[in-house]
């Protein structure tokens, strides 16, 4: 067997063990296996480490480590990590607020999306963020038509979140609906 294939297979095995531990709440064990998998080049493992540090699953939050692992996964093509790096720049979490950089990472996340079912659980998040930036002119020019297009896509994928019982789906669904109403209201006020 090709050495690269062996390494990828091993990194995927470690990722699965880490994911199982994470789902069971064994975050220290998950961290260990994600770290081993990430060291073998697995971008999903690096992204998962970002979540562990961003939310303090093994102790205190560590935004610096979270940003590092999200960045590492992002440059390896992980859409989930790219939107999380965008969030860091949007909110100024560990890095300075940079609206243009945030918007560009959200665009990158959209570009990196897999158009198979594997990324369906993050599409509502990414499309919402793009709509928000376009509606408010954050990092880009304000564009109501593009904002409406993205929020409608986010709205569609929020039904995927609901039907697959995505963690905290109610929160993003409410944000999507509120932004959708705001965009349509602004359109209506411009027409009157």
TrEMBL record:
Coiled-coil annotated residue ranges, if any: none
SUPFAM superfamilies named among the record's database cross-references: HCP-like
Superkingdom in the source lineage: Bacteria
Gene3D superfamilies per UniProt: Tetratricopeptide repeat domain
Name under which the protein is recorded: Sel1 repeat family protein
């Amino acid at each position: 067997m090709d050495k690269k294939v062996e390494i990828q297979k091993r990194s995927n095995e470690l990722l699965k063990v880490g994911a199982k531990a994470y789902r069971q709440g064994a975050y220290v064990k998950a961290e260990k296996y994600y770290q081993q998998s990430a060291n073998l080049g697995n971008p999903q493992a690096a992204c998962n480490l970002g979540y562990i540090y961003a939310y303090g699953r093994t102790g205190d939050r560590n935004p610096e480590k979270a940003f590092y692992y999200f960045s590492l996964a992002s440059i390896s093509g992980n859409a989930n990590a790219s939107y999380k790096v965008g969030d860091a720049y949007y909110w100024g979490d560990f890095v300075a607020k940079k609206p243009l950089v945030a918007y560009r990472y959200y665009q990158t996340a959209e570009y990196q999306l897999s158009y198979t079912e594997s990324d369906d659980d993050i599409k509502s998040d990414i499309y919402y963020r793009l709509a928000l930036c376009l509606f408010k002119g954050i990092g880009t020019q304000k564009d109501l038509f593009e904002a409406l297009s993205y929020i409608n896509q986010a709205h569609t994928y929020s039904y995927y979140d609901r039907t697959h019982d995505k963690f905290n789906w109610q929160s993003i669904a409410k944000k999507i609906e509120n932004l959708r109403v705001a965009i349509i209201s602004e359109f209506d006020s411009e027409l009157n």
